Amino acid sequence: MKNQKGFAHLVAIIVIVIVAVVSTLTFMAIKSRQNDAQLAKNANPDSGKHTSATYAVCDTPEKIAAVNAAFMHKPFDATNIRFITVGDDTQSGDPRFVYPWITSGKSVTIYAPADGTLSVIRHKVAPQADGSTHRDFDIFFEMTTDCQATYRFNHITSPRADIESAYRGGKDQPTGDYANGGLDDPKLIVPLKKVHVKAGDVLGTTTGTPAAHNFDYALSILKEQPHDKYSGTAVCPLDVFPDPIKNPLMALLATDQYSGPVAGTPCNVHEIGR
User: Rounded distance, CA 255 to CA 28, Å?
Assistant: First the structure.
C-alpha cells in the first residue's frame, strides 16, 4: 500500500513538472509572437515610427540559393543536444523556430552560421522561485547577402563580451516589462554599436530556459516586399547547410518533447497561421 501511495505521489509530481514546462513554453511563444509583432510595427526602433523604406527581396531562386550558400558553419555544438523540436500553431512553441533541447546542467556553444551584423538584441530578466534571477538574451543578425535575410537565437545565457556590451540597458534591466505582460521598449533593442560576425565565430553559450533547458533558432528570408524588413518568411534553419552539417542536425529532429529523435521527422517551419 505504501508503495502504491509512493507511486501515486511520483506520478503526480511528474504531471506537475510536465504542466509547468508546457505552460512556460506556451508563455514564451506568446511573448515571442507579441514582441515580434511590435518589432515589425516599429521597423525603425530609434524613432519608434513606421518606415516606408524598401528592402532587397529574395525573389528569385538564384538569390535564395545565395542565402543558403552563406551558411557555412554549424549553428551550435550538438554534443549536449538531446533532440530538436519544431513549434506549431496548436501546441506550445512558435512555428517559426526550431527548439534544441539541452541536457540538463550542460552548456552549449553557439556559433555564427553565416556572416552577419547584430541588428536586434533583447534582454530578459526573470526572478526564479528559489530567489535567484535568470538572465538571457535574444540576438538577431542581418546577413551580408544581396537580399534581406536574418538569423536569430533566443535565450542565450552568456553572449560574447562585445555582443552583450551592445545592449543599451543595464545588467538588471530587461528590454520589456515581460513579467507584467509588457512588450519591448523599441529603443532598448537597437544595439549600441555594430557587431560584425563571420561564419564560425563564437556568439556565446547557453544553458537554455530555466524550466525546459532549450533555446530557439530561426531563419527569416524576405521573399516579397513587405511593409517593413522584419516581415520575412520563416524557413527551416537546419535545411540550408551543406549535407555534412545538415544531416546530423536533421537526425536530431523529434516529433515532440517526449519521444526523442525520430528518423525522417520533417522540419516544418512556417509563418504563424500559414
Answer: 20
Matching residue, cell 535568470: 134
Spell out the per-residue pLDDT of the chain, length 274, in tens: 545 545 555 545 544 444 444 444 444 444 554 455 444 444 333 333 333 346 789 989 999 999 999 999 999 988 899 999 998 765 567 899 999 999 988 999 999 999 999 999 999 988 777 878 888 999 999 999 999 999 999 999 999 999 999 999 988 899 987 766 678 899 999 999 999 999 999 999 999 998 899 999 999 999 876 655 556 789 999 999 999 999 999 999 999 888 899 999 999 998 875 5
State the residue for C-alpha cell 514582441. Answer: 35
- Beta bridge partners, 154, equal 216
Domains and CATH numbers, the chain: 2-250 (2.70.70.10)
Query: Which residue is associated with the grid cell 531563419?
Result: 219
β-pairing, 202-206 with 196-197? unpaired
